[in-house]
């Protein structure tokens, strides 16, 4: 029984990693959304053991690869990216090497680019910031984020909410 569950999870992760050349195909889009929903349900109901099991089977890499594939399309589909960022934030808190994996798969750069594009869309920006927080959990990745301009990005996010720009009611 455990072997069937392992092969089922591995099948989901493998299907999720398949390159997405165009998300115009509703079948690919719907199957990706369904897989993300199933993974979200599996990880939300239960203990950390499921998350650690998913990490051991390459779940972090699969989620990061899906992020890169989805974000590099002509027009990124935020219906896929938002649940993907939520899963990355949940899994990344338990994966000690998530920052290094994100750097190797270029998900760090992709997330920064998406965050810069969504400065005026607070919901999309919030999900990008969740992922960046998880990626910055190690000192080396925090330094890499600093080199890539994450601090400037944070100042752009914070500036509209400073006291100079708010009015009292």
UniProtKB/TrEMBL annotation:
Pfam families: TPR_CCP1_N
Transmembrane segments: none
GO molecular function: carboxypeptidase activity
Keywords associated with the record: Carboxypeptidase, Hydrolase, Protease
Name listed for the protein in its UniProt record: Cytosolic carboxypeptidase 4
Species of the source: Carlito syrichta (Philippine tarsier)
Lineage of origin: Eukaryota, Metazoa, Chordata, Craniata, Vertebrata
Gene name of this polypeptide: AGBL1
């Amino acid at each position: 029984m455990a072997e069937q569950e392992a092969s089922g999870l591995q099948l989901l992760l493998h299907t999720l990693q398949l390159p997405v050349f165009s998300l115009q195909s509703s079948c690919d889009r719907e199957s990706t959304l369904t897989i993300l929903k199933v993974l979200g349900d599996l990880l939300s109901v239960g203990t950390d053991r499921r998350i650690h099991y998913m990490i051991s089977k390459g779940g972090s890499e699969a989620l990061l690869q899906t992020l890169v594939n989805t974000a590099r399309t002509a027009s990124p589909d935020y219906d896929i990216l938002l649940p993907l960022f939520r899963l990355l934030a949940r899994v990344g808190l338990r994966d000690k090497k998530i920052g290094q994996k994100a750097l190797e798969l270029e998900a760090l750069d992709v997330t920064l680019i998406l965050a810069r594009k969504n400065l005026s869309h607070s919901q999309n920006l919030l999900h990008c910031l969740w992922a960046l927080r998880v990626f910055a959990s190690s000192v080396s990745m925090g330094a890499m984020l600093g080199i890539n301009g994450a601090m400037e990005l944070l100042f752009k996010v914070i500036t509209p909410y400073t006291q100079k720009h708010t009015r009292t009611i």
